[in-house]
Amino acid sequence: MKRLLVLVATLFLLSGSAVTAGEGNATRPTVAGMNPRAVKALRNKLDPVYLIDVEKHPRFEAEMTLKNGKTLRFCCVKSMMNFFYRPEKYPGYGVGPKGKEIDKLYVRDFLDGTKLPASKAWYVFGSRLVGPHGDDLIPLSSKTRAELFVQRYGGTRIMSYDELRQKGFGLIKYLDM
User: Which range of residues forms the domain containing residue 13?
Assistant: First the structure.
């Protein structure tokens, strides 16, 4: 039954006919006529930025915890950073324009799935690996692991979290082209 509900909701989202998911809509995503509990379950399953099922891409999953204890799940690092830099574009998630409500960011080491703070990860840019929504940053738990990843999958740059933050939204926008 749960799979059927997700399938029907996904079809509605893809068709766009019964969906109200505009940028100004505070209840994004909402499927007309659905039980509010089902809508909440769907929201917890879908990436807030790209509306992709997070559970389909566990190796790319990223999380954001808010100071109120709420957790937002993302399909990839690019999506989480997109939300991080521009939370005002995604109302209804309890994050204001300055992002002061954000407590912690987490990513998963792509090779072994270990969850780690985003600030401790190293990110590979420009690899041959494509994320759930195109080009992405691949998080790894150490610089050595990132270097090994580049040898196998390619990559043009390895960045620390601080370097990633310095590049800002421009890098995320570039990845989304």
Answer: 1-46
The tens digit of pLDDT for each residue in 73-109 reads 999 999 999 999 999 999 888 898 888 999 999 999 9
Residue among 144, 140, 87, 148 nearest 118 (CA): 140
Give CA–CA dist 55/26, Å, rounded. 24
pLDDT digits (tens, 9 = 90+) for 134-167: 999 999 999 999 999 999 999 999 999 999 999 9
Based on the domain organization, do 24 and 56 belong to the same domain? no
- Tell me how far CA of residue 109 lies from CA of 12, 45, 139, in angstroms: 33, 20, 5
Q: Copy the structure tokens of residue 84.
A: 């991080």
The number of folded domains in the chain is 2
d(CA 118, CA 156): 20
pLDDT at 45: 86
The reply to whether 70 and 145 lie within a common domain is yes
How many alpha carbons lie under 13 Å from residue 2 in its C-beta half-sphere? Answer: 4
Instruction: Look at the alpha carbons of 113, 115, 116, 117 in this order and tell me if their dihedral is positive or negative.
Output: positive
